[in-house]
Design brief:
By secondary structure, this protein is an all-alpha fold. The chain contains 30 helices and five strands.
Amino acid sequence: MRVRFGVLGPVMAWDDAGSALALKGPRHRAVLARLIVARGRVVPVGLLIDDLWLDPPAGAVSAVRTFVASLRRALEPDRAARTPPRLLVTEGPGYALRVEPDAVDAWRFEQALARPTEAGLREALGLWRGPAYAEFVDEPWAHAERSRLAELRLQAVERYAEARLSVGSAAAVVADLDAHVTEHPWREDAWRLLALALYQGGRQGDALAVLRRARRLLVEQLGVDPGPALRALEGDILNQASHLDVRRGSADQVWADAAAAYDRTVAAGARARLESTVGLLRNLAVTGGGGLQAAREHRIAAIAAAEELGDPELTARVIGAYDVPAIWTRSDDEDHAARIVAACERTLTLLPVEGHEAARARLLATIAVEIRGTSTPAGQQAVEIARGLDDPGLLAFALNGLFMQSFDRAGLAPRRDELGVELVALSRKHGLVTSEVLGHLIRIQACCALGDFATADAAAAAADDLAGRHELPLVGVFTRWYRALRLAAGGATVDECEKAYREAAKGLDGAGMPGLEGGLLPLAVLCLRVWRGLPFVTGDDYGPYEPWVRPLVLLAEGRRGEAAVALEGVPDPRHDLLFEAMWGLVAEASVALGNESMLARARAQLAPAANELVAGTGLLTLGPVARWLDR
């Protein structure tokens, strides 16, 4: 278990799933906080005692040992007896907390300040839940660290405002900056940014008024004149200096300028254009809708163009650069997927044997992602290569491929949850946003099957949060369907569940995912009604799921003989996210028709998932697998 710590607010700790760890009383948290302040250095027991008590009791040493033992149990609950602790260690005369550089929110905050971008600063400021070390305001040992972090936060607020101004978001930052200077009136740079935002928002008079207010406050209350930056800005505003014009910094203008420069600089037909194109297609794909469809079409064209050049290394890069996360195991376009797999296999045979491990791993991972509902060792092979290379993005993509190949039998939800946990941890550490989203979506699916809806809820919330901050609209398609399933599994009425499913299905319109959309809504409603033992409406289009639904539909229409024939002809379901659901429908029809041989087949297939729910899709459910096994 990887533990994360929070000190930007009340002192807390969380496990991999985002659940808060029980840290007991205030002195336990004080010990933890004091060790975090020490940043991995040893804090002697005597110093801990002095920091914890003004008048230490006689048993202070024993009390500290008790606090430490309790913290160790909370931080490493699975540690075997008599094995040394990994996080809170004993060294010499005291204790130290040994964790990774990104394990503490304050440390991640400082790392973001070292590489200030608008997105990074926004995320860094979002780490703050209140004043640093909030419950230790009066503790002398926390004072210097609290003051330092508070100053860094003020700098981050101003840097973030400046970053937003540089891309033309003047109007959006005025209110925040106004509140900032009201609370911290001695910060001259904050006054400068507020005046600049007002000017760029077309409010020249208000900008000058702000500068005069800043001057008056500084002179009257501090006895100092404004610094050179404020004075220069006032002159520039009065002169309407051209360098204050933000239009050149707007996102659209930056895009247009960069595209024009690229066209001028990179020659037509250059191989670099192909690789740059794939980068654009990768970003286009996660927008969904027409963007996803266009990305698919142009991807095939890019691969064909690379192959025509006769350079297998270039072709491998063009294919492997499209590492768009995939969660649904039914392909949107089988022919498209087959063509990509064929190109991967051709390129693998042409690549030199030595020195192209990363390219080979990306090709194998691509094969594993594209071959859905069938089996290939490519996913495992890609992961084995990736683990030996220092390339987190490659490993994340390879894990995606391994996930797509984790459906060879029922009952593998625990294994898929492990993959989701690893993906989330890897992606958080290395800033791989789309892969982190994928990890959360995998955990939703797996935890639904395991009946762990608290973890699935947390994963859905985390995925939605990332999607909102990084403009990933397709994520909401899956989380809305999950919440409809959550209602069904939670015992809501059929009417409430069906309404939620219909609302979720609206998100599929134009999402560019026909492999997900086809037949899903009627299938979800049918599964719900079968589980609840209720009749269902026949005549719906069940799309690719029709062979496994047909016997039940015929039975509902009173056509028992035809239903028996249809049941005998049912093919084995694909090994994908709906594998258990399809066998569950077969089992339901077999019970109704008294078909012992089909019941035996269904039982053999479902038995490994005896302790799971038929909910591994994270979208629909047929209830507990044991329901059919018991019958």
